[in-house]
Specification:
Blueprint: H1 9-60, H2 64-154
Helix pairs in contact: 1-2
């Protein structure tokens, strides 16, 4: 009995590999996005802490030079926060892009896998028909021989 041979197996394997690569890319993009969120949170925490320190110092009395240094530090943190927010927007876009690529690759793999399933089903149906024809022929031959033997015994 012949085995099923999907003529587009190499393409299916390529699509499976592409999907796997897209999964790795998406996981990497998510990891980078999470790192960006952590960085943003750390800067936000530092900023809140610096502003709280500034308020405390203002209430307790502070010299102008120290206040200016604290203001410069707060401004620097605000700039870092804006840069980090832009990076986060980029990273979020990258996650969306890799997610779309993964969906596309998964759909392509599904299409080729479905084609393989259809061809396998067709192959199995053809094999069943061949097998049934073989057994029908076997039964017909046996019936013919049996009827000939019975006719020979009678005649």
């Amino acid at each position: 009995m012949t085995q099923f041979n999907f003529r587009f197996q190499k393409i299916l394997e390529l699509k499976e590999n592409e999907k796997g690569f897209a999964q790795v890319q998406m996981a990497d993009a998510i990891k980078k996005e999470q790192a960006g969120y952590q960085k943003s949170r750390a800067i936000t925490d530092k900023l809140a802490e610096a502003e709280h320190l500034k308020r405390e110092k203002q209430q307790g009395g502070i010299n102008v030079g120290e206040l200016q240094k604290l203001e410069m530090y707060i401004n620097q943190l605000q700039e870092q926060s804006m840069v980090t927010n832009r990076e986060l927007e980029f990273l979020q876009g990258n996650v969306t892009r890799t997610q779309n690529q993964l969906q596309q690759k998964a759909q392509e793999e599904k299409t080729w896998g479905s084609l393989k399933e259809q061809e396998l089903s067709k192959f199995q149906d053809e094999k069943k028909v061949q097998e049934q024809n073989f057994f029908d022929e076997l039964a017909s031959t046996r019936f013919y021989r049996t009827s000939k033997a019975i006719t020979a015994e009678r005649g």
